[in-house]
Amino acid sequence: MTTHKHLSVLSLAVIGMLCSALPAWAVPITLGTAQSFAVLGASTVTNTGATTLWGDLGLYPGTSYTGSVSVTQTGTVYLTDGVAQQAQVDALTAYTTLSGLSSTGDLSGVDLGFYNSSNPLAPGVYTFSSSAQLTDDLYLDAQNNLAALWVFQIGTTLTTASASTVNVINGVLSGADYGVYWQVGSSATLGTSTVFAGNILAFESITLNTTASILCGRAIALTAAVTMDTNTISNDCTATPDSIDSGRSDYGSVGFSGDGISDNGGGTVPEPTTLALLGLGLLGLGMRRRRHA
Length: 293
Prior knowledge:
This protein is of the alpha/beta class. It folds into 2 domains: 2-22 and 270-291, no CATH class; 32-245, no CATH class. It is 21% helix and 31% strand. The chain contains 4 helices and 21 strands. Strands 1, 3, 4, 6, 7, 8, 9, 12, 15, 17, 19 and 21 form a 12-stranded parallel β-sheet that branches. The protein has a 7-stranded parallel β-sheet with strand order 5-2-20-18-16-13-10, with no helix packed on it. The protein is globular and about 45 Å long. 42% of the residues are buried.
């Protein structure tokens, strides 16, 4: 009886310890078929000036794509077809997953520029009750963590000032699975000459002002327009020439959107239910040994 009791307590302790060690955001995140896109709009896609895209461009359910003659891109254009439709479905799934993650920090009212090179922001899920703004340079510190993830849950709008930047530092190039996601409740606007990073999933629209760029990420609007003006958007930072990316890196994540969160061995981090089953397995093993004793 004593042995059985000790094994039960040990098993429960193992369950509790392993589950509590997992961050609240340790769940798979994937863009699905939307991952191949640099730009994905819903109502319209509009461009002015010479814009360069690394990746596909899609539109669904709208039909109006204007200014395409001035767009240079490596990928394919999908207008109001099944490919764009499925990408929108997958993007909405990702948006819903991101919005449902448990927050690890409330940044409501904090300018993202507060997290500068001397005070970088660690991985986590950060919530803004309404709008979020960036008026300077934001630094995200991966801390050499192969599974570094940043999710910004923004209640309404995301706005960046002119010449602001988003920088990811201290990443590891080999076997990493980084993620930078901006889940925006309404619309996102990138100011003139902003140099952005990460995947913007806006429930409504995305506007990139003159010469704004997303060098490692995507612009995905779920219900409204994507508006561009002499921009550069790349879903794979390493694909852009040095003259554009100035040596920036997405550390092999293909635009900070790997297929989920991985551990140092490259596998998916187990969810609490998996760890609980491990603990229950230990308990069952102990009971079996007791019966045969």
